[in-house]
Amino acid sequence: MIKLSRLILLCSAITVFSGLNVAVANEYSAIKKVSESKELEGLRDKYRECVLAKGTLYLKVNDVNSAIAHAPIACKRELLSVRQFLLSGAFKVEVVDQLMDSVREGVEIDLVNHVYNEVLKQKGIKP
Q: Who's near 78: CB < 8 A, 6+ residues apart?
């Protein structure tokens, strides 16, 4: 009788884990679809363009560090559009936050490279 109850418990555990794996796979698939969508790509590009443009402008009146720090703040509205789009996908807030961090970090990397290339151009050095 004890062996039968262990077998039932084991089968139940396998069923639960299988269900969790399917749920995780479905969520991952949905996240992948959204993260590769044309709409998100367009919103991400608008945010990137805004940040790079502001970075170039701020560099004309401020130092490099200030331009890098303040350009993303000036484009917060575009970043909020990205967040709104992601929230409309019915994802958990944690997932949206991770996707937002990914967008933000990618644009920050582009900004740093862009600002330093602008500084090199101003100094007559080919990047």
A: 43, 46, 47, 50
Backbone angles phi, psi at 14, to 5 degrees: -60, -40
**Cβ-based burial of 81 (10 A; exposed 0-12, middle 13-18, buried ≥19):** middle
CA 8 – CA 40 distance, rounded (Å): 46
Tokens matching residue 125: 């050095």
Residues 6+ apart with CB under 8 A from 115: 55, 56, 59, 64, 67, 68, 71
CA 123, CA 127: separation in Å to the nearest integer?
Answer: 10
* Whole-number pLDDT of residue 36: 81
pLDDT at 9 over 80: no
